[in-house]
């Protein structure tokens, strides 16, 4: 090689670079890369983990694309499918899947149908009948799925640990009873805006799903302390969203404060809460990282002082906007009490709101 010449890349180097770069590409770009050369094609197919994820989020003709992809050998071991906001997907696409490529879904562990509003109980039954190993199922913002769909989900998929039913307004306590009986290993449950649910159904969940780490009860204003007090039994609970829990009292919050591993708690618009409840929270939950007291007029500076004594080294997100009883709530005042704060407003700060939504959907911090 002449002086100054760049060394030629060998096949192993190219394959290594492809392995790194390809993990950061969209499905469309990945498929385009397959067409570059026969060597690219072989090297990419050799990366089996690339084909364990099928992401068709927001794509047009997602149903057709899904069926076509699962007909290919490289997707025979797919583990995660994302169809979030693929609004043209319908029940019939899943019926076709069941009839044509059922075996391709046998190892599927995660299915995201968020925003797929055309899916009904029929579609849920068809697709879950192909996925006996499904562990995570999300069907946010669907008003067509009923208790029958949940019954079919449970009959077909026995290993569920992560279930998002946010916005499924036509499920009732009957669904919660079935979930409680069959999914006692459940770790993540999102029941946001499931408006037909009552204390009776939630109590079944709290009684039998003792491994829950994340529970989202956002905008369920009809629930009362009768159910909230039972949250105390969730020893592993880390994330809890009670935004709009207008019937939650200090007594109920004092029971919730027994969840000592809690790191994220949303009490936005929990209007009955006062210093009494927050003081109990400060004593019982020293690991809090995320707390919203937005709009609660019954808390004062005493609440912040108590929280500072127990959580000053952990709290990174705190929203006390609208808490007119707290007089020292400027950014500077809050930083004196909680030096690690990074987010002060959840409702007016785009980044904080995006972060909060991420926690809601994933139950993680």
UniProtKB/TrEMBL annotation:
Domain of life the protein comes from: Eukaryota
InterPro entries, per the entry: FBXL15_LRR (IPR057207), Leu-rich_rpt_Cys-con_subtyp (IPR006553), LRR_dom_sf (IPR032675)
GO biological process: SCF-dependent proteasomal ubiquitin-dependent protein catabolic process
UniProt cross-references to Pfam families, sorted A to Z: DUF7885 (PF25372)
GO cellular component, one term: SCF ubiquitin ligase complex
Signal peptide from the UniProt entry: none
Domain F-box/LRR-repeat protein 15-like leucin rich repeat: 69-331
PANTHER family: F-BOX PROTEIN YLR352W (PTHR13318:SF95), PARTNER OF PAIRED, ISOFORM B-RELATED (PTHR13318)
Name of protein: F-box protein At3g58530 isoform X1
Annotated source species: Dioscorea cayennensis subsp. rotundata
